[in-house]
Write a structure and sequence with these properties.
Layout: H1 26-40, E1 44-48, H2 54-61, E2 66-70, H3 74-87, E3 93-96, H4 100-106, E4 116-119, H5 128-135, E5 146-152, E6 162-170, E7 173-180
Parallel strand pairs: 1-2, 1-4, 2-3, 4-5
Antiparallel strand pairs: 5-7, 6-7
Amino acid sequence: MRVIAGAQRGRRLMGPKGPGLRPTSDRVKEALFSILSPRLVGARVLDLYAGTGAIGIEALSRGAGHATFVEPHASSLRVLRANLERCGFGGQATVHPCTVAAFGKRSTASAPAYDIIFADPPYDDEGAAALLSTLTRHPNLRPRDALVLEHGSKVEPVIDGLTLVRRYRYGDTVLSVFRPQQEESHAP
């Protein structure tokens, strides 16, 4: 695993350890950041189901102002924190060692809003879209610009309160881009 572009381009990241972990491929990462690039500079990014932090770190490398990572697993947290230090992004990052559901319960309306939210739940997590629907009802967890959900190709998630703008398919992986409903006419 490596950072593809930006200030840390080419920097090797520590990879996931353990069964069932599925890092986002470079091909999908490149596509994701091609979609997000016009909105990324200075953005506040929320990386849900962060794993090793590769997506949030890529966003920071490409100019995001701050990234918040949510990850409950101790082994992934160690790798995530090491990757942040390796890239020098510790001061631009906040790490929440908890589940996405617990993070949603802890968040308050006074917390700063996020411009972009990225979620990469386990592909077999059938409740992820419902959980994201619940989270985005909170004003500070509703993306100001976009929510991108990485999921398997056999699922067509719906997130209440957000409008599906487009789906991008890469083999068995799909990136679904959602926007707040008042921006329906906005193309990705």
